[in-house]
Structure formats: C-alpha cells, structure tokens
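Entry: Glutamine ABC transporter substrate-binding protein
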Amino acid sequence: MKRKMWAVLTTLAVFFACLVTFNLSATPAKAETTYTIGTDVTFPPFEFANKQNKYVGIDMDLIRAIAKNQGFKVKIKPVGFNAAVQSVQSGQLDGVIAGMSITKEREATFDFSKPYFTSGVVMAVAKNSKITKLSQLKGKKVAVKTGTSGADYANSIKNKYGFKVVTFDDSNNMYEDVMTGNSAACFEDSPVMRYGIKQGTKLKIVTKPAENGSYGFAVEKGHNQKLLKSFNKGLANLKANGQYKKITEKYLGKDASKDTDSTSDNSFFGLIKQNKSALWSGFKETLWLTVVSIIFATIFGVLVGLMGVFPNKFLNGLSTTLIYIFRGLPLLVLALFIYTGIPSLTGQKIPAFVAGIITLMFNEGAYIAAFVKGGINAVDTGQMEAARSLGLPFGRAMRKVILPQGIRIMVPSFINQFIITLKDTSILSIIGILELTQTGKIIIARNLQGFKVWTIIAIIYLVVITLLTWLSNWVQKRSKL
C-alpha cells in the first residue's frame, strides 16, 4: 500500500515539475533592445485598434516613433489599464503608456517620464439631459472609468456635490450607462470625450476642463532607467523636429476621423464583415485556451480525485484541501495572483497564456476532482469488496472494476466542465489574453457599437455552447444504454 501511495506522490511531483518546466521554457528570451510595453484597450484617441486591428493612437504612434528615434524596438501588449499597471509593478512588462496621469501617489510606485501631454477633466451628459452644472448632480449617480483622472476628480468632489460614483473598466460601458439614464453624467479626459462624441457617442460636454494634469510614460520604480532616459530623449527630439505635433494633430485635428469607423457600415452584418478576422482570431484563442486548459485540468483533477478515494488519510486530506482552496478562490483573483502576484515574489515572468492555463487548470481541475470522487463513490461499495475478496490488490481493483463503471457516470460531467471552461476563458481578458471577450472590447473601442458587438459575441458563445450541450445530452443518453 505504501508503494501505491509513493507512486501517486511521485506522479504528482513529476507532473508539477513538468508544469514548472513548461512555464519557464514558455518565457521567450527577450532581446536587449526590445521592450514590452503595456497599454489600455479602450482609450481613443490615445490607444485603440483601427480597421486592420492594428493598435494606433497618440500613445501608440508616439512610443513607436520614439523607439525608432532611439534605436530600440517595442512590443505592444493591449491588456487594459489596470492589468498594465499591475504587470509593470510585478515585472511582467517593462513600461506602460496609456494616458496615465502623473500623480504623487503613482510617483511613489513608478518612475515617470517627462510629461508628453496635458489634459483636463470634463463632465458629459446625455444629449437630452437638462444638467448643465455640478450642483445639479446632488442625489444622482455619475459614471467613471477605473484608474483615470476623471475618476480621481469625481471622487474628490462627490461629497461636496452629493453624488455617488459608479465605476467601470472601459469607456464604452461608462458612456452607455449615461446614455441609458442609469447615471446622470460621466467624467472623462477632455480629448477622449471629444473624440468619443465625434465618433457618434450621444453625449454632450457641459463643463470646461478642470483639474488639468499631465500624462507620462511609466516604468517600475528603480527599474528600466535606460528605457526611461531613451523615452525622454526621443520625446525631446520629436518635439524639436515637429513629428510630435504631426502625431497629435493626426488624432485631434480636423482630419482626426480618418482612422475611425465613422463612415463604415455599423449594421450587424457590416460589423461582422469588417471584424471577421479579429473575431475569428479571438475565437481560435478562446478554443485553444479551452482545449489546453481542460487537458491539464483533467490530469490534475483525476489525480486529486483519486487521492480522495485512496485508503490513506494524508492523501484524503490533501485532496480535500486542494479542492477546497481552488474551488473557493474566485477565478478573477486566482488569475491576477498567478499573473502578477507570483512574479512579484519570484521575479520570474509568466506569459499571459501560460498564466491563463495554470489558472483554469487549478480552478476547473478542482471541480473535476470533486466529480471524480463522486463518480467513484457512486459505484456500489460491494463492487470493491467483491474484487478484493477475489484477491485483487486495491490498485488493480480500482483500475479494472471501479473506474470503468465510474467513468460512465463522469463522462457527461466532463463535457459540462468543458462548457464551463469555455465560458470562464472570458474572465482571463483581465490579464490581457486576446480571446473573444477581449477582442470585443478592442472592436468597441474603435466603433463604440457596444450593444451590437456584444450581441455578436454572445451569439458565437451560444452557438458553440449549444453544440456542446447537444453532445453532452447525446453522451448521457448513450451511457444509459
């Protein structure tokens, strides 16, 4: 019996060793002159994806021009503002440029470049709103975007004017909340709000810019000083040769609409036609993430589930503990802990895709372990007793008698777990994986057609999940024959 126990423990040790090796080997060797830069996904005109799904905007053009001027390369990672900031703090990214306001609080954590843009915060309301000043917000809700200067400004005056703040992760949802009447107003940086209105957002600006602040390029405090110096030097050169002015006028001047979708077909079919390559790429990433995750989750879940039915108290307790921990942790928290928390402690970078696989492996694997234990325990105890009475050792009795019966009970649950894993991949957009949900955010940042784009993505999910549900029902019927 001890040999069996050690065999299981050895298998687990080998499995986790392979996983760690895969993790380390998956981190690509980065050339000295290539820097990975994080940015937002929904902050036009500073960063957004154009019709060719290439990231453009003031920030994007500026960092690329500076890189060319200073002789280094940049790899842009559109992970969203919060993920970008946390990834720089944990060493996952070398720097962040995302319309990031320079504040005293942030200067305690980041080293900032010299300011490259100055902006102010404005209040916008629905076109038919009668609100024209801050004093009319008393008792009402206002919408803001996480981490922006607009959010900081709103929170600084909310007690004075008696309104409540509702926070969103992207600009489109913030605008929609005001247009639908859920919030009375929103606070946004002036150029961003003006650009959104030019794109067709049904809002109007009713205040003059306030709380003027400066945007800066940021790196982790005390790190990447060479990159920071190169940015400052390149910025000065671009301002001197007139290239900086050309970049800003391209997105804020009279011809600022040429990189937008203002003249595009924004019908459902038009949006599908325009974004079919991006949607297909996001769908493939979702499917690939799901398949790889469910394979690792199944291995992890089966091993932990078998530990739970082994006649050994230590293995039983370890199984119960692992299931309790990974089923109890919210998937979002687990993803951020693995992607940003662990690198902060170890200094070892974890690619977003690998972090997503590990997250789903532990979370989904815990649920698989639970129904593996349940499936085995559902087999009549007399089956094991009969097998043992015939002289079969525990391991062989489990393999030859119990598991074949238990698997028939488990198969429908495995398919259901595949469906759940497919849906859970959408949460991993928080760490910047360009799956279907993150792709939707990027498309919306360009055309601000939130309702239509989310409807298209919802239909894609529903079609795939419906097919998998039919498969699950068919397998369940076959297992009863």
